[in-house]
Amino acid sequence: MSKQVPLMTEAKSIHGQWSSRLIFILAATGSAVGLGNIWKFPYITGENGGGAFVLVYLLCIAVVGIPIMMSEVMLGRRGRQSPINTMTRLARAEGAHPAWSLIGWGGVLAGFFILSYYSVIAGWAIAYVFRAAGGVFSGIDAAGVKQVFGDLVEDPERLIAWHTLFMLMSMVVVARGVRAGLEKAVTWLMPALFVLLIVMVGYAMNTGSFAEGLKFLFEPDFDKLLYACEMVDGAQQCEISGAPILVALGHAFFTLSLGMGAIMVYGSYMPKQSSIAGSAILIALLDTLVALVAGMAIFPIVFANGLEPGAGPGLIFQTLPIAFGSMPGGQLFGTLFFVLLVFAAWSSAISLIEPAVAWLVENRGMTRVRAASWIGLITWLLGLGSIFSFNLWSGERYKLFGKSFFDLLDYLAANIMLPLGGLLIAIFAGWFMSRESSQHEFAMAQPFYSLWRGTIRFLTPLAVVMVFLNAVGVL
Ligand code: TRP
């Protein structure tokens, strides 16, 4: 850290700037709130035993998520470029090794991985918009819902069609620039999604199993967290395992869009005077709230209908339709709900592509249209693997470590790559960036700055490393 090169901070990124702090918050919340909150959080909570898992996840948000989100925004706004170039530039300015740009490269790869299956699941949501609107769910029971879901995921052609559509939708937005369409859309879509979730909770409260659902979600049972259980030939087999804690950590990264540069690139479009800490905390709170509300809507329905909380990725697609099918106005609400789910996924998907597209524009001189098309094509192809995991490749012989292609990709990206990326971001921001640089960029009161710095230097890296060691069985 000897030869510090002064940083010529640009006032703006070449890609543009959000029109206000509020827009930054909405865009980042649009990135954070997505399938992770409504689809993934309930099903991994179900698979990992409920309350204790939720507790560990909340702890990860506080100790790891918020400090890293602040760091990503801070780094992005200071570098004002795609994450790859931002890290190169900041490393040079701080006299650190240029290899720190690996954070950006790893992020681009993680973005490909995540978007490839994210788009497949978003495709399910699109398919469900039409099923809900067509009245397929009216009066449906648990068996009927299983059938509808099975018919969809066992048909690769249908899945490819929806996956293609979602991918095209995402490409179009990124190609036009994030500011044009999405900035306006998120402004009313996010509140609307929230209102609909409240309606769902209202319904769940009247199912008679609301207490059971809440108990599952909020009553910690640490045995369920520490033992990983699997159904083998109809019998439950359990063994002690650090994996669920790693899943909770991974999900904290996933749900806040951290560890791969998405929030960093959004930070690079943030106006100079806006408060980073305040924005990060607000985004994390909103995101957590949506996840908890989704859980409160879903688990009562699971218990009231004798469904399995550990049903896996199909969970919300096999619970919510039952509620829509029996509530007054359910056809309308159901349709709206899945439309909004698609929009929530959409505003997240664009943030997964943006880092790679910004880099192609900066370094290869591509137009955004070209850049987005390339990224879209690669990701689309990779997505086929996830599609086949639900049908052609669903057999045991196509599994690696007992996981399908889809499970493996999700596990690798969310639970390994994101926490690793986050760890490096924390180390760079806390140890390699000078106090003057970060303090100047944050521009917040001394005690709060010290709190961030202490956390990001010690607590955050320690937590991530310990969870890793625990997962591989060392701790
Ligand atoms: N946070 C989004 C969700 O919960 C998904 C997402 C968008 C994401 N951008 C990301 C995840 C970047 C990891 C990294 O659905």
What do these coordinates show?
- This protein has one domain (4-471): Orthogonal Bundle (Hydantoin permease).
- The radius of gyration is 22 Å and the shape is globular.
- Strand 1 (227-232) and strand 2 (235-240) form a beta hairpin.
- Helix content is 73%, strand content 3%.
- It is mainly alpha-helical.
- Tryptophan binds next to helix 1, helix 2, helix 11 and helix 15.
User: Could you give the count of β-strands?
Assistant: 2
What proportion of the residues is helical, as a percent range? over 70%
**What is the element string, with H for helices and E for strands?**
HHHHHHHHHHEEHHHHHHHHH
The helix count comes to 19
| Strand order of the biggest β-sheet | 1-2
Categorize the overall geometry: globular
- Enumerate the spans where pLDDT stays under 50 for 5 or more consecutive residues: none
Number of domains: 1
Q: Quick one: CATH class?
A: Mainly Alpha
Any idea what the CATH architecture is?
Answer: Orthogonal Bundle
Largest sheet: 2 strands, antiparallel
- Mean pLDDT, to the nearest integer, reads 90
CATH third-level topology = Hydantoin permease
State the secondary-structure class: mainly alpha
Distance between the termini: 33 Å
CA gyration radius, whole angstroms = 22 Å
Subcellular location: Membrane
Pfam families: SNF (PF00209)
Family: Belongs to the sodium:neurotransmitter symporter (SNF) (TC 2.A.22) family.
GO molecular function: symporter activity
